[in-house]
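Teaching assistant's notes for section 4

Start the section by putting this record on the projector. Ask students to predict, before seeing the second block, whether Tol-Pal system protein TolB will look compact or extended. Collect guesses on the board.
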Amino acid sequence: MNPNGENLVRLTRTPEIDAAPRWSPDGRKIAFESDRDGNPEIYVMDADGENPVRLTREPARDVVPCWSPDGRKIVFASNRDGDLEDLEIYVMNADGENTIRLTRDPAWDGAPSWSPDGTKIAFESDRDGNPEIYVMDADGENPVRLTRDFAKDGAPSWSPDGTKIVFRSNRDGNPEIYVMDASGENPTNLTQHPAEDEVASWSPGQLAVFPKARLLTLWGKIKTTQGDGR
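Reveal the predicted structure now:
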């Protein structure tokens, strides 16, 4: 749809769940997760919804894809090598070949997001006892914890210039959208609303925020906010 919410067009038409769509950097493709073949897998389709191609083929959960800035790779979360409840971070070529495991922790690692310069991947993990935001090198080395809060912090997304990370947290009582420096400093609540705000995605200069209460209906009514929450 248009940024103002007009001209909504349906791209997928399956009886199963299609979710977590991500545009390719060149705008020609959309990666997404779907359980249309029996379990969650990663797919890619043209931007108009045509020509869907299945990239992963595992009897496991492959979810939340995210493109590298150059469009050559896709990072995603999967439980293919461990406990069914624990996800790890993997990366593969954009055609689904050469899958490499990046994280090796007995905890849950998910929601990967590639930095604009391609050198870092932000993700959420409960390896220290509760969900927090971490960042690691693109090869999985040198993980660093960014948030230190007894609440649940997750769903990180980098700003286009790589200086900020927006994320979800319930540190103030219910899920809200926050933004912080890429170093983890200066977290700021952007939404401050009694409803639950769950997922945010950057566009140049703005954020699109998706309320949880509407997640099952087209990811909810989009509301945009400036990077400072206005």
